Amino acid sequence: MLFLSHIFVFHGFSVRRKFFTIALFFSGGLFVYTLLFLFSPGDLFAGILPAAMPAFLNGAFLHFFFWYFYIHSVQIMDRSVATRIMAEIEKSASGQLTHEEIARIYRIDEKVAGELEDMVMLGRLVKDGDKYRLTPRGRLHSALFKAVRNYMKLRRS
Prior knowledge:
Layout: H1 2-12, H2 18-38, H3 53-79, H4 81-91, H5 99-105, H6 108-121, E1 125-128, E2 131-134, H7 136-151
Antiparallel strand pairs: 1-2
Helix pairs in contact: 1-2, 2-3
């Protein structure tokens, strides 16, 4: 039900803070799941007993797992340069574009400006005059991403 309401919200309204909205849906879903688990039919406090904890944690893990990968699919569709370029080529009259045409349609300066704005909004960067610097959260995320990229031997892009 939460997934369908999320689709309705994103389709019916102009949502500026997409990731924040998705996080709200995730948190709301986890809250609703917890309430339903605790107050399901049977003994009112059966969900609180330690014997029921594995079932609760299993459901919470599945909720997290599905939403985590859903968030990443939204991220890929919303942020991926490759996805956007392919969509622009598909949308063109002839179904093909030159490098120059793609560069005219897909302005890299607008992409970078949008990414910087989002990182400031998410608390990863602080704008100081005309420069940006990492926040403690940004340093933590940067270190985590760098470690994963180095472990997976991904090239710098």
